[in-house]
Structure formats: structure tokens, C-alpha cells
């Protein structure tokens, strides 16, 4: 009898962990998508220096040699129990590759992992978070953190549905 009871308890615990993992993964996917899509993508035509050039109708648009937007958006990383220290080197204007890569990592989540990190380690990340870009004047991380509860409840509702 004890054996059947133990089997039933183990099955219950296993099912509960499976449900927690699914809800957590869905929540993490929503967080990553929000961070990536809120991330500004460099657009020289809206930079203050270029707005002045356009206003005067004289001169050529300024941008650093080899510039392409999407470096910040492409450098979001998801890690478990370890903070990333290096950039990905990815340029991703649309955010699709970044989300796909992050979702692959999220898919590895297991109950018992201690920490999850959503990180962007480009040197100018802090300035962007503090409103340096007109595309994200209120940052990305602070807003997404405030929306966590909403993402979590959505994930639970999706799991039930």
C-alpha cells in the first residue's frame, strides 16, 4: 500500500513541476519578446545631429563608419544561474533571431534552477535603459518588470485554455 501511495505522490509532484515549468517558460518567452521589441534600433535619420542637417537642407547624414542598427536589439541574452559577460555580436534589426535564440535557451528551463537573467551587455545599454533613445524614453527593463505579473497571469490562462 505504501508503494502505491509513494507512486501517487511522486506522480502528483512530477505533474506539478511540469505545469510550473510550462507556465514559467511561457512567462519568460513573453518577457524576452517584450524586451527585444521595445529595444530601440539605431536610425541615423532621427538622430539629433541629422535632424539639424535635414532642417538646414545642407550636408550629408552622419553616422559612424560601418554603422548598422540592431546591435542593441540583437544582444539580448537569456541565461540561467550565470550572468553573461560578453556581447553576442549579433545584429538583429527585427529581433527575430534574438527571440529564437532566447526561446531555445528558455526551453531548457527546469524547476530547481536558481536564477534567470535577461541581459544586454552592450556598453550603452544603461544609457538606453535610462531614456537616452526617443524610441524607448522610459527604458525597457523597468517597464517589463512592471508587466511581469500580467505576463505570468497570461501564461497561466494560456496553460488552462
Commentary on this structure:
By secondary structure, the protein is mainly alpha-helical. 53% of the residues lie in helices and 6% in strands. The chain contains seven helices and two strands. The protein has helices at residues 2-38, 48-56, 71-74, 96-106, 125-129, 141-146, 148-160, and strands at 76-80, 116-120. It has a two-stranded antiparallel ribbon. It starts with a helix and ends with a helix.
Q: What does the main sheet amount to?
A: 2 strands, antiparallel
Order of helices and strands: HHHEHEHHH
What spatial order of strands do you see in the largest sheet? 1-2
Report the mean per-residue pLDDT as an integer. 89
Strand elements, count: 2
CA distance, first residue to last residue? 36 Å
Rg from alpha-carbon coordinates: 21 Å
> What is the general shape?
elongated
Percentage beta strand: 5-15%
Question: How much helical structure, as a percent, in the residues?
Answer: 40-55%
